[in-house]
Amino acid sequence: MEAVHGFDGHSFAVLLHVVLFAYWLGGDVGVYYASRYILRSDLGPEARAVSTKIMHGVDIAPRVALVLFLPSGITLMAWGPLGDQFFVHGWLLALVWVAGLTWLTVSLIDYRGGDTPLARLSQRADLVVRYALSAGLLAAAVYTLVATDPFGVDTNPRWLGAKVAAYALCIFCGVMIRRQLLPFGPAFGTLVTSGSTPEVERAILGSIRRCEPWVYAIWSLVLLAAALGVIKPGSTAF
């Protein structure tokens, strides 16, 4: 992109990355806050159902941000030392965005839910992508951290390896949150249709409480990734 008043392609990539960071962390905090009302047994089922709808609606922001964080980050890499090695041809970066937007489409279909063949396929596909990315990115991050000149780059990009590791762990934490929430749906459905019982309240409370360590881990990892991206500790690139 041709520079106009100092704003070029790199500036746009930085802006997009910052916006995604803000919506990811801010949306996650909103989801967490709404979940506090779901745990309140003194509220009626209707009020708690509204909190569930708010939590689900707000969750769209971190869901989109997590997916687009990857192509956005790779776009930033394309403007750095790694770009000279791997992104000489623009089609490769375009391919990254096509893959990222495809994953986003699958994730949004899964987000809408439903009991259709497409919804079930999207849910399985989204989980496969998340498991594969968390493992693959973590492996790449470890290599970047331990290799002398990872990927032929001699500007000490270990900070980038640590940032990629943080992102990979965020994806894994998100998968674990889904696993912990599996009992929540049936329990909350029973609450709405049949009312509150000690067993239902324990199931709802236990499901959300088991998610909390993974939520706190995501917050910490997102902040760590942001700090690494700003400080770039040890980098020799100027």
Textual characterization of the structure:
With 238 residues, this protein is an all-alpha fold. It has one domain (9-231). Helices cover 80% and strands 0% of the residues. Helix 1 (9-38) runs antiparallel to helix 2, helix 5 packs across helix 6 (117-146) and helix 7 packs antiparallel against helix 9 (198-231). The protein is elongated, with a radius of gyration of 20 Å. It has 9 helices and no strands. The longest helix has 34 residues, at 198-231. The chain crosses the membrane at residues 12-39, 60-80, 86-106, 127-147, 159-177, 214-231. Keywords: Membrane, Transmembrane, Transmembrane helix. This is DUF2269 family protein.
The counted number of beta strands is: 0
Task: Report the principal-axis shape.
Answer: elongated
Relative strand content: under 5%
End-to-end gap: 21 Å
